[in-house]
Specification:
Uracil-DNA_glycosylase-like_sf; single chain; Uracil-DNA Glycosylase, subunit E; metal-binding; hydrolase; globular; DNA damage
Amino acid sequence: MARRSGAEGGEAYDASPFVPEGADLGALRRAAGGCRGCPLYRDATGTVFGEGEPSARLVLVGEQPGDQEDRQGRPFVGPAGGVLGRAVQEAGIDPAEAYVTNAVKHFKFQQAERGKRRIHKTPGLREIGACRPWLRAELRLIDPEVVVALGATAGKSLFGPSFRVTEQRGVVLPMPALDGEEGGEGAGVLVATIHPSAVLRADAEARAAAYAGLVADLRVAAGVLNA
């Protein structure tokens, strides 16, 4: 497993040795299947890489694969993906122009005490940092006009650990540099919003407002695309 010196008290995980230089998206996807940059690969079914056209104008970055995504090997095919798909279309975004991926490419979970249910666990900063080279490679190849960070994990992957969805959502932000490099990952901009799973977790009274907020933030991204 690739490791490097980290700032969290111990070694930090690092996927960069597994990321091939000069690869297209297809080659990146194949290489990601063999990633051993952090321990999450040990329990996950497999790597879940991004999907979409290399010419996509918009990149949607989520947190990590969920249970269904891990089993099917595709991003956003579970309940949260259904919410996102509806919200994207309602916001006026053509799904064909969107590339979907996650900040972390393996499913982090704990096994339920009874039964076979796998319970989602939020990736830590070391796991987010380990997977950042994959996200950076995707963004460099696609060079989208807009990146949408869906939730805290995606935001921290792109902005760093100080990111807060509640403070930075729904506004057009300059695309940040990844891994401290000068300049952003292309000339695009970034819009942050909640993860669609937050809509599903909301109680009945709050769910409609949470969904409306997600759509409103995506309309900000759509406004940039349609400008």
